[in-house]
Amino acid sequence: MHRLAMVNKYKFAHILPSLEYIASTFPTHPNADILAEVTGIHPQIFQRIFVACLGVTVKEYIQHLVFLRARLSLRNTSSPFSESAPKYDKAIPVIRSSALPRNLVYHTIETKLGSVLIAADEHGIATVLFVDEKTDHLCNKELDALLVKKIQHYYPTAICEPGYTDEISSVIERFAGNEQYPITLHLNCTSFQLDVYRALAQIPRAQLRSYSELARYMGKSGAARAVGTAVGKNPVALIIPCHRIVPLKNTFGNYMWGNGRKTALLVQEAIQEKDFL
């Protein structure tokens, strides 16, 4: 997800049911009228919101998904990553902490694909999470409680407070399109999880890999299930690109923050890829 614009945070929420429908029925090609009915929005209004949020029409969106799946099917799976070096996303330094980070500062930003919560300590980024709950009706105290609860899902004993740090700024710079901006992650994870996250960071933008391919790339061919479990526990969405892992069958698989958002992320990457070719 790159060059993120500040937009009305509920626009994406309005079309999200249509993206979930596309993900669940792929490889069928529902048209805009069907998707508008799924969302309960007038067809003309739906199409305007869809293009405003994603930059493409419904037809183009599905065409990108077909291309991404075809690219995975046609590639040489005997050498999972070698034919496409990570031109855009460099491996991100990760520090595996020996104890849970105790003091975390958090900040939220609005993006085309929803609210994003970033938390960090002085050593690096601890979490990057989507916030799907509607928060307009919450007072500041209630909102802070919601955000802290999300962070403490990963770091139960952490002391959290709102704020802004250089570490958080580094993530926002990356979201703004500065691919070379350095980011360090400070995570509480096992050595195996750390290996998985480092491998995930090597997958180029707009490329798909299967769980078994990722395991093979790590030199652990028989550990596809364990790799899948580690992928599912990724606390830093977008930075560690777990959305680029899909089943071998012709679907896009599950995603912690919604299958519709997963396909939206992949389509955004496919669009941006064309800017660099």
Order of secondary-structure elements: HHHHEEEEHEHEHHHH
Distance between the termini: 17 Å
Enumerate the strands of the largest sheet in spatial order, edge to edge or round the barrel: 4-3-2-5
SS content category: alpha/beta
Rg calc: 19 Å
Large-scale geometry: globular
- % residues in beta strands: 5-15%
Sheet bearing the most strands, described?
Answer: 4 strands, mixed
Task: Name the helicity range.
Answer: 40-55%
Tell me how many strands there are. 6
Mean pLDDT: 86
Put the structure in a nutshell.
This protein is an alpha/beta fold and 277 residues long. The chain is 44% helix and 13% strand. It has a domain of 93 residues.
Can you describe this structure?
This protein is of the alpha/beta class and 277 residues long. The protein has a domain at 9-75 and 251-276. It has 10 helices and 6 strands; from the N terminus they run ααααββββαβαβαααα. A 4-stranded mixed β-sheet has the order 4-3-2-5, sandwiched between helices. A two-stranded parallel ribbon has the order 1-6. A hairpin with a 2-residue loop joins strand 3 (114-121) and strand 4 (124-131). It is globular. The model is unreliable at 1-9 and 82-89 (pLDDT under 50).
